[in-house]
Amino acid sequence: MGVTGPPGPVMDRDEVDRALARLGAEHEAIETSLLALQDHAGRRLLEGAELTGTTKERWTSAEASITLLWAYFDAYTDALRSAREIRSRRRWSSREDLVELTELLRGESVTVAGSATATANAPTLAGSSKLSEHFSLAALVERMNALYASSLDMVVAADAVWSALPARIDLLAAELQRTRQLAHSVGVRPGEHPSGDDLERITRTLTTLRERVVSDPLAFWVPAQGSSAPGGGRPDTTTYDREARALEEVRREIDAVLTVRQDAEARLVKLRDTLSRADRTLAEARSARGEVLAKIAASEVPAVSGPPTALQEQLATAAEYRRHAQWHRLSPLLESLEEKAEDELLRARESLTAVTAPLAVRAELRGRLDAYKAKVARHGFAEDPFLVERYDAARRMLWSAPCDLRVAEEAVLRYQRAAADALSPRVPEQGSGPSDRIDGIDRMDRRGPNA
Questions:
Q1: Which of 183, 279, 387, 406 lies at a 20 to 30 A Cα distance from 322?
Q2: pLDDT over 80 (residue 121)
Q3: 302 preceded by cis ω (within 30°)?
């Protein structure tokens, strides 16, 4: 190989000294970084772990990069040492020394030989047939920076996932174990209650998740968008968060079951009382219906249903669940029964109201008839034969059985009109006093009974 001259102008002594000082500072910084990478906890974990998937592939590449990094650093160290030796030969370097230093400091004077394995796996030399390369010191520093950044990024990402997820999974697994024990104590078991099945599923998911996180941490790493800094990103906790929420849902369900266990007897007593009141109300409605049918004629009287036997059977089932401490079955049954019992009591009350409506109408007509009689008597018409006849006719209809409400209402209206006609001549055109009140009453009476 022929001798080549220095790249560009020959450096003077000051330029050489400044370049050596800069290269020396870079050498110390690179050495510090490499030693820190060598001692990094994540790197030591990666070396001892049984890796799979993405992490295994990237660690194979990173290991080769780290091997090349040390080879580059050794070559860089040798070149820097050689340059310092040349500079130290004389206080005032000769022309030949400066030419040699210029070639060493600026030219591609550094040769790095790498093993075939390292060269094949390193991302910077992958696919290259070269087993050695020539660099300038500046290019060598740039290459080392690139390899260091990619290797550190991989190590920091894996370490961040290992630092975050396994510990959290273990804590959640411990909480899961306590929840399973509590669930078992209240009868929430797999195959018998949906929450028991959920606990089994969460257990399987967490076990699988931990195994994957330990063997392939980079599968759970989300790089930061637009970030070029090593380790820029965050652990992916999507699966963990989902199972944590599912466990919280199960805990709430178990808490509800525990609440049922604590106040089950009181709720059962209240349910029995509500259904008993509904039964009594229906019995009263049936009795009232018989009375209405006997006392009221020409009236539509709705039928009254029997007691809610299905609810009584479910109540007996609930009591059985309580005796056998089957709280997980009792919880939903009590909630359903409480709602149905209140609906049944409301239905019974509505049935009683519907059945007794004709009696209420008759009572209202009786009250209206007596009120008009008292009003007529106050004005001195108590013995009026026509009014007495109309009153007696209406009273016979209202106090006879069965009572035809339609005919009785017409009789009451006839008496009202007769009373109004009798009282009308006593109303003066002007003035005030009792006659004004009579006039007001008459005007109201003429509007009819439903005014």
A1: 279
A2: no
A3: no
Q: Which two tokens stand for residue 210?
A: 């931990």
Beta bridge partners of 223: 233
What is the per-residue pLDDT for 247? 95
| Angle (deg, nearest 10), helices 137-185 and 194-215 | 160
d(CA 90, CA 253): 86
pLDDT of residue 14: 84
Find the helix packing angle between 95-106 and 53-87, rounded to 10°: 170
Tokens of 339: 């709602």
Which pLDDT tens digit goes with each residue over 283-318? 888 888 887 777 777 567 777 777 778 888 888 898
Its sign, for the CA torsion 424, 429, 433, 439, is positive
Distance CA 119, CA 121 (A): 6
Mean pLDDT of the chain: 81
Cα separations in angstroms, 272 against 108, 139, 269, 317, 429: 97, 90, 5, 13, 67
pTM for this structure? 0.56
Cα gap 99→6, rounded to integer Å: 6
Amino acid at 140: L
Q: Alpha-carbon Rg of the chain, whole angstroms?
A: 51
What integer pLDDT is reported at residue 298 of this predicted model? 55
Kindly state the average pLDDT of the residues 178-202.
87
**Long-range contacts of the stretch 407-416 (C-beta < 8 A, 24+):** 408/362, 408/365, 409/361, 409/365, 409/449, 412/365, 412/368, 412/369, 412/449, 413/448, 413/449, 414/390, 415/369, 415/372, 415/387, 415/390, 415/391, 416/368, 416/372, 416/445, 416/449
Q: How far apart are CA 235 and CA 165, in angstroms?
A: 8
Rounded Cα–Cα distance for residues 294 and 434 (Å)? 43
pLDDT for 350-399, tens place per residue?
A: 888 888 888 888 888 888 888 888 888 888 887 888 888 888 888 888 88
Q: What pLDDT was estimated at residue 32? A: 92
Q: Which helix (H) or strand (E) holds 333?
A: helix 327-378
Query: What are the tokens at 20?
Result: 């050596």
What is the residue type of 255? D
Alpha-carbon gap, residue 95 to 6, rounded angstroms: 12
Is the alpha carbon torsion for 265, 268, 273, 279 positive or negative?
negative
